[in-house]
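Friendly challenge for the regulars: who can give me the structure tokens for this chain first? No prize, just bragging rights.
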Amino acid sequence: MNTVADRLSAHVSDISPGQPFRLTNAHQPGEGVWQGDLGIRIVAGVIPPEGYTLVESPTDADRQLAVEAGVGSHHRLRSLDGVKLYRPENWGRDDADTRGPFIVFVKPNAIVHEPGHDKPHGSVFIDAPCSVQIDYQRNLDAVTRREIRARD
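First reply, four minutes later:
Bragging rights claimed.
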């Protein structure tokens, strides 16, 4: 017999590019979804990992969840209302660090991918209360990709 978590887990792997997705209270810590190169993973609790700092008075610019705001990196919070936003202390200064913001939602919200990309990503709607960890897909240069292929 399939549990709700089993069905949701199966659904996560079947998300089509550009389609919306909803993270609900039925999802468990560790489950999540990728919005292009931005990973959105549910975590237990409201305390960020060690090495994170609260963004005290977030502005509209803080809605941006990817370090680079170029084409393809327009992953943004729909609203800052009901959000506690934490960032790694080295955010934007260490290219090897794939950790993004830690976000606590006390109101329903969404992570949207604003226009400007040839492959638009669907919005990820997030029910509240919920805490998520944002992670990034690691970008590999051509030399590193060849080294990995050679090891495999």
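The mean pLDDT is 81. Strands lie at 21-23, 32-35, 38-43, 52-54, 75-77, 83-88, 99-105, 109-113, 124-126, 130-136. Your move, everyone else.
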